Amino acid sequence: MTVKILSIGLRGVEGYRVQVEVQEVPGIAAMVIVGLPDASVKEAKERVLASLYAFGCDFFDKRLVVHLSPPERKKHSPMFDLAMAIGILKAMGKLTAPVSPDAAFLGSLSLDGAIQPVDGMLPAILAAKKLGFQKVYLPYDPTLPFHHLKDLDCIFVQTLEETVQYLQGQRVLSLSPAFRTPEIIDSPRKHHRDFQSIIGHHQAKRALEIAAAGGHNVLMVGPPGCGKSLLAETFPTILPSLTHDAQLEVISLYQLAGEKIENGHPPFRHPHHSASSVSLTSFRKKSPTSKRSESGR
User: Does residue 247 belong to any structural domain of this protein?
Assistant: First the structure.
């Protein structure tokens, strides 16, 4: 029998439904993951098997095939670990309770069965909401604004055993005080320069004020030294605070980049004028060795 558990895959900040199919087949004992998995997903085999062993299950004499559908999309991130483990337990009869088709499972597994958050959790949660999921099983992350998520039940689980017990009806999970995420503080704006301190540039300032009031895009063109960078740097000081939806979008981008936003103000990014299109549209963390080599130039 093929067991189907749902999860969320990411392509940038856009999420899509991933169906994790698990089936026991004849053959040499092994766990095979198919469906265009990348290296982090292929390594899930060892994490999932170790977690199941810590849970008290031994499937090392079975041949299990795990298929991540749709097969034509590359699967990234260890976010599918929990869904794989639940699917295997369901296929082996260790989990007898039905799993809701409106539930998604997100999170990475450690070797002892603990469920850990990964980068991209917030975009995945927002995608689950857009795709019509009613429940999401995931580890708690204090950096995520769960208070903004409405019409979606976020069930926080800490271990694989706790998840199975909850699905079997043997445990009740509640939103404890430690799981309450505070609102993003609308703290005073911290800018070295303020829009009102700019002298001159009356027409440009008037155009920016209209753009800020109406939410319009702005393109500034001019020779070097005419004040474009100064106007752009001070522009956020007259912008209103981000709406809840805009905050979620900004936080999603920052989380994928491994950064965090500490307030509800529009962020300001200042890329160098010589930046390539690749550096503007992609993210790559520099290693300590590359930083040392650059500093020694």
Answer: no
The number of distinct structural domains making up the chain is: 2
CA 204 – CA 255 distance, rounded (Å): 34
Residue 259 lies in a domain: no
Backbone torsions φ then ψ of 105, nearest 5 degrees? -115, 125
DSSP assignments along 174-230, one per residue: ---GGGPPPPPP-PPP--SS-GGG--S-HHHHHHHHHHHHHT--------TTSSHHH
Identify the three-state secondary structure at position 34: strand
Question: Which tokens sit at 248?
Answer: 């979620």
In a domain, residue 215? The reply is yes
Residue 46 lies in a domain: yes
pLDDT in tens, 123-159: 999 999 999 999 999 998 887 776 667 778 889 999 9
User: pTM (2 decimals)?
Assistant: 0.79
Q: What is the DSSP letter of 45?
A: H
